[in-house]
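Team,

Forwarding the record for the chain on the shared tracking sheet. I've put the sequence and predicted structure together so nobody has to dig through attachments.
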Amino acid sequence: MLPCRFSYFGRMVTILAVVVCVLAGLFLSSPARAAGFPQKGKAVQMLVGFAAGGSTDVGARILASGLEKELGTAVVVVNKPGASSQIAYTALTQARPDGYTIGNTNFPSAVVSYLDPVRKATYTRKNFEPLALHVVDPGLFAVKTGSPFKTLREVVDAAKANPKKVTISTTGIQSDEHFAILQLQKMTGAQFAMVHFSQGSAPALTAILGGKIDVFCGNVGDLLAQFKSGEVRILGIMDNEETPFYPSVKTFEAQGYRLYGSSSRGFSAPAGTPKEIVNILSGAIKKAVATDEHKKRMKEMGLTLRYLDPTQYTKYWDEYEATLKELLPLTKE
C-alpha cells in the first residue's frame, strides 16, 4: 500500500506544481507585469496646457488623484500654460514614450495647433498616442450679476448696434470659445471685441468678476461655484439640451441661435509608447472615472464625464479634425 500511497501523493504534487506554474505564467504575462510599468516609486507626469484653477486643470487634478490609486504611484500635474496649450503639446510630443509623461489634449486646441501652418507646430497628429477621452464640457455665455445684460439676445443686439464695443473673453485664438464667437458673428452680424486669455479660463474669470470685460465665454465647468454664490448670470448653453448644473438656463438653440460648442478633454501619450503601456494607462483612467468618488467630485465641479477608450478616442479625434478643417478659415477673416 505504501508505494501506491506515495504514487498518489506524488501525482497530486505534480499536478499542483503544474497549476502553480500556469498561474504564475498568466500573472507574468499580464500587461502590467510584461511592461514593468509603472515602476514602484517612479512618478507619472501629467502635463496641462492651462494655468492652475481653470476647469481643465481641476478636472485633470481630480483624475490624477484617481490614477494614483489605480497605478500605485504618484501622478504629478505640471501646468505649462501659454500659446493656447501649444507649449504643453510640444513638451508632450517630445517626451520619452515610456508612459511616465502623459498630457491633457483639449479640443480644439490640440488639433488646430498643428492644422494651422501659421502656428509652426513641431508636431502633427502622428506624434500623439490617444489614451482616453475624459470630459465634454459645453460652452456658455455669462455676465457678472450686476451687468445690464439680462439675456443672450440683449448681448447679441448690443454687439450688432455697437460693433467691436462689447468685450468678450476666450481662452485663446482658435480656442473653442473663439470658434463659437466667430460662428455667432457670422450667424447674426454681431461684432464682438474679443479678449484672448491664452493661459486659460481662470484669468478670464478674474476679468469678468473684476468688471474688466462685459461677457465671459467659457464652459459649463468654469462657473459652477460663482453661479451658486450668485456672482454670475448664465445667459445660454451651447448644447442641444439644457445642463443639470444650471437649472432653467436655456440653450442657445432654444433662444433662436443654432450654435453648439464644447471643450473636449482627453489624455494622450507621446507616439511610440508601447501598446501594453497604453492599455495600462487607458485601463487605469477607465477604472478611475468609474469610481463613485470620481463621479461625485466631477459633478461637484460641473464637469460632464465622457470616457472613450483609445480606439474610440482615435475615431473621435479624426472626426473632430475633419470638422475643424472646415471652421479654421473663419479665424482668418
